[in-house]
Amino acid sequence: MNFLEKIISLKKAAVDEAKTVLTPSELSSLVADVRPKNDFKEAITRSRDGRVKVIAEIKRSSPSKGVIAESIDPVSVAKDYVLGKASAVSVLTETSFFNGSIRDFQIVREAVPGMPLLRKDFIIDEYQIYESLLIGADAILLIVAILDRERIKRFLSVARERGLNALVEVHREEELEVALSSGADIVGVNNRDLASFEVSPEVSERLSKQIPRDVISVSESGIRDTGGLEIAAELGYHAVLIGEHFMRAKDRVAELTKFTQSSPQVRARK
After folding, report:
1. Residues taking part in catalysis
2. What is the pLDDT of residues 195-234, one digit of tens each?
3. How far apart are CA 160 and CA 154, in angstroms?
4. Which tens digits make up the pLDDT trace of 81-125?
5. Best label site of 27, 193, 219, 236, fewest CB within 10 Å?
6. Looking at domain 3-30+43-261, does it have CATH number 2.60.40.10?
7. Do the beta carbons of residue 164 and residue 126 sit within 8 Å?
């Protein structure tokens, strides 16, 4: 059983357990009138000067790197990201492999109400979309590698009906085709293969050529310096998502500021 198979199995069990505590109908009633407060898509769309936006991630650990910053205060990290001028913040809520939690998300939401927040998790059930609304998410992650075309379409439809943005993550050409044909308007290209954990910046380069101009694009994983930011800009990406590099930084505000102040201009796609 590989990583994705393990995570799907564990996630299914976790969602099933959550449904015994708060039933789908109860959850639906709780979020009937709930809408996101911040526009994630607007926040990560390149500005008029064409500069690349930065999504900074709160990540305690990962399957490939182990413990990154376990004993952190998510609120302090989030406030550092605000001071460093991140355009949006991604918060891991997956417990088994990333040591994140819904509680992490909730306290960050309370601490930085005006910051667009992405819930980073392995969403396999519609229940989790409503759960994301309940905890105050402005956007969710949908990973094509773990979802079939029909579920991608359905989840996108449900999210849009409720005002949630969805970052649809791909790693291969065939996954990009599924994302685009399903109507994704924000696509994240993950340079990390979730099956092998290998990171190749060439993935962002290769897939950038196939992303339409009207789709907001995000390059994810493996960006450790402003040189990586410049490459993303040259390839036409609107934003980059960076977690480990900022989490390991001794001075997160200063390190993030290097990226946000030196953010190069995005080249217009042909």
Report:
1. 57, 59, 120, 169, 190, 220-221
2. 778 888 899 999 999 999 999 999 998 898 999 999 999 9
3. 10
4. 999 999 999 999 999 989 999 999 999 999 999 999 999 999 999
5. 193
6. no
7. no
